[in-house]
Structures are given as C-alpha cells and as structure tokens.
Amino acid sequence: MQLDLKIFSGSAHPELADEIAAYLGLRRSDATVKQFPDGETFVKINENIRKRDIFIVQPTCPPTNQNLMELLIMVDAAKRASAESITAVIPFFGYARQDRKDQPRVPITAKLVANLLTAAGVSRVLTMDLHAGQIQGFFDIPVDHLYAMSVLIKYLRDKGVCENLVVVSPDVGGMKMAYAYSKTLGVPLAIVAKNRVSATEVEAISLIGEVEGKNVLLVDDISETAGTLTSAAKLLQKYGAKRIFAGVSHAVLNEQGRQRIAESDIEELISTNSTPFAVGKKVKTVSVAEILGEAIRRIHFGESVTSLFDIS
C-alpha cells in the first residue's frame, strides 16, 4: 500500500528526518525555513499538502526556543495549507523537566508547551522517552510515547556486554527506567545516591547494591553536562566495577559534557540520534529512525503501535 504522507523537518535535526523518510521509502518534503536578520523565523511549504497527513520532525533541543518556535510556525503553515492531519514528531521534548511546581511562583512550562502545540494546530504528538511520563496527560490530543530501550539493548547485546552485568540508576529519580532495563535484561539492579551541588556539579555519595567485579550499565534519560553519569562512574570504579557503560536516551551534550565523558571512567556512552548532539570521544550513537518511521507508518494507516514496545 502506497504511503500518501509528507515528512517535513525544521532546522533542528534534518539528518534524522532524512533517515526516517528513507526508511519509509520517501524523500523529505520541501520547505523553506530561515531566519530574518532580526531573528524572526520564516517558513514556506513548497509542496501541495492539501488533504495529506503531515509529519514534522523537530526535536526541541538547543537552541530550544528557536526550534520550538520553528515547529509552531511550521504547524501553522501546514494547517493553513489545508493539511488533513499534522503530527509533531518530537524525539526529544524540551522543557520536559519543568513538569511541576517544585518552588513557589514557578511555571509548569511543559504544560505551556503542550498548550502551544495544540493551539497551533497539532493533531497528534509522537515522542520518545519523556523525562516524566505524566506529561502525556498535559495534552488534550493523542500522544504516542515510544521508548529507546529496544535499540539501546540491541546494541548492548550485539556488543556482548550483557553477561555479568548490573544495571545502575545514577540517581533516585531514574529508578523506574533502570528497573525496566534490569527486568528486560534479567540482571541485578543497583542505585547511586547523589547530592546536586549546583546546576552543573553533582556529587555521588553512596551506592546501594553490589558491583564488584561486574560490568555496569548506567542508564538515564537525558545527559547534558554528564555530571551525574561521570560522578556515579567514579564511585562505581571505587566499589570495584569491572567495565562501565552508560546508556542515555537523549544525549544533549555540551562541550563540558563531552570533555567529562572523554576523561571519565565510562568506557562508552551509548545514546540515540534523537538530537544531533550525541557526538564526542567515547560516544556511540544508535539510530531511532526505524522505530520512529514504523510508528509514522502505523499512525498513517491507523494501525496499533503497541508492538513497537516489544524487546526481543
């Protein structure tokens, strides 16, 4: 059955959009996205999209505000061009960590972003490994929430490091994700307790679990400065870990993060290409284009995406 859909991309990660389109046997559709000298964004869709299913690939990674605004403007352009449906494909959902009021007089920005996307005309959101799963409830439109665990575990199995393995959560907040990995791999679970000194400095203070003589997989959803991962790795080395790997859904690594990984006790950081920042020494990128592309195909044909969660 022929696909009658269009894949568009903003400027955030066109390479991922190209991979997704290639998986579907399509080419990325033509749109002009540029910045005026005063910083305003201009968008023009250069193809007929009337009564078509439109998928706009745009992770809201740095520069976050620019990429988010681009997405909103592209959605508006598609809506005014009479698209049948508009799916925002957001592999990395920025502002996801601002999902609650943890201080007086602060916003819930993740909810605001959900409102903006809906108001702009998004019909559905396709995303991956939200920092907080309850963000799905911030939307009044369907949200398909995929997981990167399947592609990360496949790489680890192919690499042959799943024997004698312990999965470690680098902080208390990551326990749910770490448990999912340990259960799927059938290996023990451990946890590092940390103390956040500042926005970029983290101190690992204690370990719950046994890692001596074991291969270790640290798992987390997001890494930017890599302070949490590298601090945990240092503590695990102290407790006798044999080889230390890290698996991160979204590596939004800045220069400090790349340097920390390069100089750390981590043998390899495995991440997805949900953003273009998963690069650097000791960083291995695995592609999520196939799982996103398959989800797009199933959404287009009205099929279930449930089987995409299976790990084999």
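the 2nd protein, sequnce then structure:
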Amino acid sequence: MAADWQMIRLDKDSPVAIVTLTNPPLNVLHPQMAMELDACFTALAADPEVVVAILTGQGERAFCAGFDIKAFHALMEPGGAERLAHLLHASLGKITHLGKPTIAAVNGLALGGGMELSMACDLRIVAANAQMGQPEIKLGLFPGAGGTQRLPRLVGAGVAKELMYLGDSINAEEARRIGLANKVVPAGEALAAAQEMGQRIASMAGVALRYIQEAVNRGLDTTLDAGLQIEADLFAKVFQTADVREGVDAFMHKRQANFQHR
C-alpha cells in the first residue's frame, strides 16, 4: 500500500510510527494527501505493532504551509467545497480517533490546513522557528478542515476567534502560552523530541492509552455528567485487561512493568 503513496511516507520504529508529509517545497495539503492520510491512519489503527503515531513534515521549512491553492478551482464547482470539507473531516478524524496517542512534530510553518492537521493530533511538539496560524480570512475564507471546532477546544473561544478573525500567525512560544503547543524545542529538534516522548508513551499500557483518548474526545462533546459516565464505563473495562494485572503485580514487587497492550 505504502508504495503507491505520493505525498506521505510511513516509517515504523516499533512501537512508534512516523508519518511524514512529503509534498515539497512546503508540504501543502492536497486532496490526494488527505486520501493517503486516511488510508495510512486506517492501517495504523489496525497495526498491533504500533502504539504511538507521529505526524511531521519533510524538511525544516514547513510542517504543512496550508492547503494547495492550485486545487481551489475545483471548489468553485457546485458541491466542490462541501465534498472537500467532508473529505478533510474524515481524513483528520482518522488521526483524532486513531485509538492510539498521536503527536504532531511541528517544524517550520503550520498554517491553515497545516495547523488543522496538527490540531487533529493529541499533542503538539513545536520547533522554536515554527509559525502557526489560520490565515484563511485573508482569502475571504475560514478554516474548513476542522479549525473552527478544534481550535476553540484547545485555546478557548475568544482566543480562537481572534486568531481566525485576524488571520495572524503566532510563534512557538505564543502557541505554548495559549495552550496550542505542549512543548517548544530548538529548531530542528521537533521530530527527535516527539520520538522521545512517543517511546515513553509507548511504554505505558496501550489499552489504557486508548481509553484515555476515547474518554477525553467523547467527553469534550457532551456534558460533564455524561462525560463522567463515559469515564466510569471505560474505567470498568480497563480493570478487565491483562495490563492492569501486570501493572499491579509490577508495583507490588517493585519491578518495571512490561505491558503487552491487552
């Protein structure tokens, strides 16, 4: 399958998978890339060797500098923009609901669709030279790959609206200050830092990681009481896993746990 991909590359350093956007020079988002990401993350969801997935961009200039404007002509046709929005929502949804932790290693520019790609991931490690933003308003547009929904959930409605109304980019430190970036690292080190974090996360219990992701994602879309019920249901399920038995036994015998992700 991977041999047919033209705009992404998949590398596996079990238990961590690295998905790299490869659309030079700035790794812009394209409908073909969206379809390839959909196929790739569908495969990763079913891969028992992969516990954590990292998304990054090729080179140091850009994670993803936005949507390919040359593809805009098709959006002017009746139904074209709606079809694209559904394609992007489905593709990015495969990342958000992978069932395994995801990390965006943001190197360089992450603008428009690129920032939306990063927000589809659970965590964002951002290089110090990165620029992030939703500049669509400057084209008379607004974010259509989930930005109007994911950005407010990360930084709050007021800050999100300011970024989308003005279209200004922010640097890595500002991204961390508002809660968009989990960690800022020196330029050129985002992928290495993401791999280090990915390996640490992958040493934890895989089923519990999946349930954390599910509880948070589902809980954000409902009331507190409903979210607490989701948590209780998943908490009951996690206690039936082999990993819990291993974790408790390791703690009692003062040894390192060896989780099998089941």
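The chain has a mean pLDDT of 93. The radius of gyration is 19 Å.
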